[in-house]
Specification:
The protein has 792 residues and is of the alpha/beta class. It is 41% helix and 18% strand. The protein has 26 helices and 25 strands. A hairpin with a 6-residue loop joins strand 11 and strand 12.
Length: 792
């Protein structure tokens, strides 16, 4: 039978329901604007997707269902209740819109003929229907019988199954839009199989829940039996309540997945162990550590740079470059919080404020602060903990400090990293690699816990006195930030703002009872202390306050003003001479400059000669490098003997002895080479050395003066020891920008390229008087090397 084109029919787009052929459905429409044809016919269309607006032909499924309106009535509140009877399917061939609404052009499809091939498929569908009805109790009991009585055709049967069963709306639309009987049966079969699969999943879930409930009831029953047995035996049953408390804490704790699984396993083990056994206490301690560590607790960072700058300036005077580096670190952390920053290593002499800087950073960030010292540490377990197989095992110091802080992002300061050791118990510096390496510490594994802990949010600060003694592998992961000594002005300001008030508080004196005059503080700093840091200065201020406290207790309650005279009454004569250099110009006596782990210092070098065979002796507990410097200086002088009007016999018939006083103090390094050469030149020429001059630099066999390190510390030491002229290698002039302006103003700094220039600057002419006011002008050869502006 050929298809026939039917007249145009009004369109009804069904969004929440479906009408199948030969089916009667009551649908409530949102308004009463239903448009029907003269015979009461209407075409129900199905959108391909609910998200499409439905105005174009391509947006609808190609098959529509023609329906007749059987009954309609108004609904209170607006709307229309309409009873539709499905008639037949029709192919959608056109769609247009007039002034009253959309109209669909339909092509009537041929009647569905019975096909023997569909019979087997119908029986398969019926079997599936029986299985679905058996699993679902909400269907009427006679639904299967109704379906069997209406098996007049494969297409009709498929429509009935889709209409009566609770398929999803999208599935029903797909079945209604299937014009081919075979496709319709396949769609119904697929929907039934999906329904059965859903039922199987639900049955499995219900079974698991039921089994779990049964297991819980069985466990509770057995535990009550165990409790009764323990009570009958007189054993303590308190362990059970403790385990339940641990289980409750675990349920509330926000542990990572790995830590949660380990902790849950250990809590289960506790249930099978007697509370009186040693194993119970071991497991209980381990679970306690897992639950008490700050896995998710963190402090909220205050990354306000002006506030941080204010805090650093309040707590520390000077140290401008160090403060700027810390502020840069905070700025980068604010712009890129997810990226781990550099590990800052503060290197400087004792007493310059390395530890207190860590506290200031913590206060500026609003974080908790903790510190640990690894000086003299030899046991790796102090860092990474002991394994649980050992008696008394505990986590390492890192996790202990995090537990004490209660947050996972504190400021953690590791002091004295340059003083670690190693022995048969392990190498703690290697253990620290995992802690301080940004690529490793995201999953730090302590030997005791053996569970990964993320240390990437910890702000690590490391301190040391020397860089050279930090293990190379560890030094490679650190950014070195140097803290040099303080100038006189900075020490005075720190004493006025911090040290005096702190000492008064420690001594218990009223704050207004003692005051220091500016000249008194100057005398105290210059005459009683001589150091790079502030510890001796603080101890001296404490001594003054203790003396005054003793007088206060004895009844002398008058206010005390500590000036120069009062300072000597309390502390006695000054330990160091204040003013110009005391010694006279001497032959064979030079002042060198050296750098030590406690800052810069002066180095006295003496030389004498006696009849002999040309031997060179060095004393003063010198290291190998310094002895080689003395030998190189001696060789250079012999090679240039003609320039100093010396005869070879002067060296061949003389033994030399170069001595460095304070022989109990070890000395090493190349910086004294040029000073030794100048000392020997003074000795052989008989010309005295200026007493107000000091020098540093490494010497070569050709007489070149090479660059050395620690220039800032050495110049600070020269200023502390009343030196007014300093000779430094010419290549070190670039480092003078780091020197405070007051030091550059107080010192005449001269750069030299070879030893000849040092000799010209340092040695006096023959017959000069020994008073400093009568020292002659240096030779013109060195005049052009003076640095009038040290900052240039």
């Amino acid at each position: 039978m050929a298809e026939q084109t039917s007249p145009e029919l009004p369109v009804l787009i069904l969004h929440s329901s479906v009408v199948f052929p030969d089916d009667v459905v009551s649908i409530q429409l949102p308004d009463d604007s239903l448009r029907v044809a003269e015979e009461g016919l209407v075409a129900t269309l199905f959108l391909r997707s609910d998200s499409t607006p439905g105005v174009e032909l391509e947006e609808f499924r190609p098959t529509a269902v023609v329906c007749r309106v059987v009954q309609s009535m108004q609904v209170p509140g607006g709307g229309l209740q309409v009873v539709f009877q499905g008639l037949h399917r029709a192919a959608l061939t056109g769609l247009r819109t007039d002034e009253e609404g959309p109209l669909a052009t339909l092509a009537t499809q041929p009647a569905e003929a019975d096909d023997p091939e569909h019979d087997d498929k119908v029986l398969d569908v019926l079997d599936l229907v029986q299985e679905v009805l058996a699993r679902e109790e909400s269907y009427p009991e006679d639904l299967e019988q109704i379906l069997r009585l209406n098996m007049r055709g494969a297409g009709r049967f498929a429509d009935l199954v889709a209409a009566y069963l609770n398929f999803p709306l999208s599935v029903k639309r797909e079945i209604a839009a299937c014009g081919d009987v075979g496709e319709r049966l396949a769609a119904v079969e697929t929907a039934l199989q999906l329904e059965l699969a859903r039922h199987r999943v639900e049955d499995d879930v219900h079974r698991r829940v039921r089994d779990h409930i049964d297991d819980r009831q069985r466990e509770q029953y057995l535990r009550s039996q165990m409790r009764a047995i323990r009570e009958a035996l007189g054993e303590d049953a308190g362990g059970e309540s403790e385990i339940e408390e641990l289980a409750a804490q675990l349920a509330e704790a926000e542990l990572p997945e790995e830590a949660h699984e380990v902790c849950l396993r250990e809590v289960r083990r506790l249930r099978s162990v007697a509370p009186s056994s040693a194993e119970y206490q071991v497991i209980r301690t381990y679970v306690g550590w897992l639950l008490e560590l700050p896995w998710s607790a963190r402090s909220e960072d205050d990354l306000d740079l002006p506030h941080a700058r204010t805090v650093l300036d309040e707590d520390h005077t000077g140290l401008d470059k160090v403060k700027e580096r810390i502020l840069e670190h905070l700025a980068v952390r604010k712009l890129n919080p997810g990226r781990p920053g550099a590990i800052l290593c503060l290197v400087g002499p004792p007493g310059v404020g390395k530890t207190s800087l860590g506290r200031s950073v913590a206060r500026a960030l609003g974080r908790e602060f903790a510190r640990m010292s690894v000086g003299g540490l030899r046991d790796e377990a102090e860092i990474k903990g002991h394994r649980r197989t050992y008696v008394g095992a505990m986590p390492g110091k890192i996790l202990q400090l995090l537990k004490r802080c209660g947050t996972r992002n504190p400021v953690l300061q590791i002091d004295e990293i340059d003083k670690m050791g190693s022995d048969h118990r392990g190498d703690p510096s290697s253990a620290l690699l995992e802690v301080l390496d940004p690529s490793c510490h995201t999953e730090f594994r302590d030997h005791y816990l053996d569970v990964g802990f993320d240390l990437s949010e910890v702000f690590f600060l490391v301190t040391a006195n020397l860089v050279d003694t930090i293990p190379a592998a560890l030094r490679d992961r650190l950014e070195i930030v140097r803290l040099d000594g303080y100038t006189h002005v900075e020490k005075k300001r720190i004493a006025e703002n911090h040290l005096v008030a702190r000492s008064l508080d420690k001594s218990g004196l009223p704050a207004e009872h003692v005051s220091f005059t500016p000249r008194g503080l100057d005398r105290l700093i210059e005459g009683y202390t001589r150091e790079a840091g502030l510890r001796q200065l603080e101890r001296t201020v404490d001594a003054v306050c203790r003396k005054v406290a003793t007088e206060y207790v004895e009844g002398k309650t008058a206010r005390v003003v500590v000036g120069r005279q009062r300072l000597e009454e309390l502390l006695g004569a000054a330990r160091y001479k204040v003013g110009g250099a005391a010694r006279k110009p001497e032959v064979g006596h030079v002042t060198g400059l050296a750098w030590t782990e406690v800052g810069g210092t002066t180095l006295s070098i003496e030389a004498t000669r006696m009849p002999g065979s040309g031997k060179l002796v060095t004393t003063g507990r010198l290291g190998e490098v310094m002895r080689e410097s003395a030998q190189a200086a001696h060789t250079w002088l012999r090679a240039h003997a003609a320039e100093f009007d010396l005869e070879p016999a002067d060296f061949a018939e003389s033994d030399l002895h170069v001595h460095f006083p304070e022989g109990a103090t070890p000395k090493d390094g190349p910086s004294a080479g040029v000073a030794i050469a100048t000392c020997l030149a003074s000795l052989f020429t008989g010309r005295p050395v200026r007493p107000d001059i000091a020098m540093t630099g490494e010497v070569t066999l050709r007489g070149r003066v090479l660059e050395v390190g620690g220039i800032k510390e050495k110049l600070l030491a020269a200023h502390r020891h009343d030196v007014t002229r300093v000779l430094v290698p010419h290549d070190n002039l670039k480092d003078l920008g780091e020197i405070p302006q007051e030091i550059r103003d107080a010192l005449e700094i001269i750069g030299t390229k070879n030893v000849i220039e040092n000799v010209c600057e340092a040695l006096l002419t023959d017959g000069v008087e020994t008073h400093l006011g009568e020292i002659e002008t240096p030779a013109p050869a060195a005049e052009q090397l003076r640095l009038d502006d040290p900052a240039s």
